[in-house]
Amino acid sequence: MSSKITIIGAGSVGSTIAYTLSNEDIASEIVLIDINKKKVEGEVMDIAQGTCFRDPVSIIAGEYEDAKDSDIVIITSGIARKPGQTRIELTQTNVNILKSITPEIVKAAPNAIYIIVSNPVDIMTYVFTKISGLPENQILGSGTMLDSARLRCGLSEHLNIAQKNIHAYVFGEHGDTSFIPWSGAYVSGVSLDEYYETVEKMGRNVTKIDKDAMLEYVRTSGGQVIANKGATFYAVSVAVCKLVATILSSSDSVATVSSMMHGEYGIEDVCLSTLTLVGPKGVQGKIPMRMTKEEVEKLKASADALKAVIAQIEH
């Protein structure tokens, strides 16, 4: 596959994405850009020296102009929250970084599909959508792809069934107001409740999921990893690379990515994650999933929480 991918930001997430892409036959050209020139050159040298074990790939430490003709641009720039720093303060700092990057990269790669990974990802996706001047179909955030992967991992371990047989999602913000629409959780075509009954008839004893505990597991997994090792970057990098492969494939797929809402579920003018059709032309639209009234209210509450933060920042 011949494709050019530019990654802005060579921190833990950006460099791990570059490394993961270098091990897969997704990209033929990778450009890594960072304000810290020595760091990005070191990352590129380290990654490039391992590429002899795969089909040829070009990987360079570049400038914005090197992103010309990129198929995909991945933005990971930003800082992690410091002790004592409020979420609003972190948001404003990372929005300011994004505002400095956006005109430069959009000028170099106006036709690329942009994947926003920087946190808080929903607000960063919203700001980029507002200031970039690009068509909305070219812009998406990594959203709750990782949260949904964590959910499937947890369900798989509990039910002792392969993750590929589980269709369940996390909606809303990539953060504290995310939620699981359990009415749309299925195992091989049957609802969770039906699945319990089915396996019991087979003589298997499956304990019912503690839904509150599962949501807590999903929401706190990132914080637990950060507490244990300082940062999260492997799982999110795999999720982003899967998204890259989806965009570069020949057909669309459904993913929980963050993109602008236009009245779906009664929500407008905010970016968050619901089922979204994504493919070679970027965001194709939302897939409406039947949800209970209570679940729709949770999605609206998530949207309101994001809007409250947006109202407090300069963008």
From TrEMBL:
SUPFAM superfamilies: LDH C-terminal domain-like (SSF56327), NAD(P)-binding Rossmann-fold domains (SSF51735). One of its GO terms (biological process) is lactate metabolic process. Pathway: Fermentation; pyruvate fermentation to lactate; (S)-lactate from pyruvate: step 1/1. InterPro entries: L-lactate/malate_DH, L-lactate_DH, Lactate/malate_DH_C, Lactate/malate_DH_N, Lactate_DH/Glyco_Ohase_4_C, NAD(P)-bd_dom_sf. Keywords: Allosteric enzyme, Cytoplasm, NAD, Oxidoreductase. NAD(+) binds at residues 9-14, 34, 39, 64, 94, 100, 117-119, 142. Its EC number is 1.1.1.27. Residues 4-141 form the Lactate/malate dehydrogenase N-terminal domain. Residues 144-314 form the Lactate/malate dehydrogenase C-terminal domain. The active site is at H174. It catalyses: (S)-lactate + NAD(+) = pyruvate + NADH + H(+). Pfam families: Ldh_1_C, Ldh_1_N. PANTHER family: L-2-HYDROXYCARBOXYLATE DEHYDROGENASE (NAD(P)(+)), L-LACTATE DEHYDROGENASE. This is L-lactate dehydrogenase. It comes from Fusicatenibacter saccharivorans. The gene is ldh.
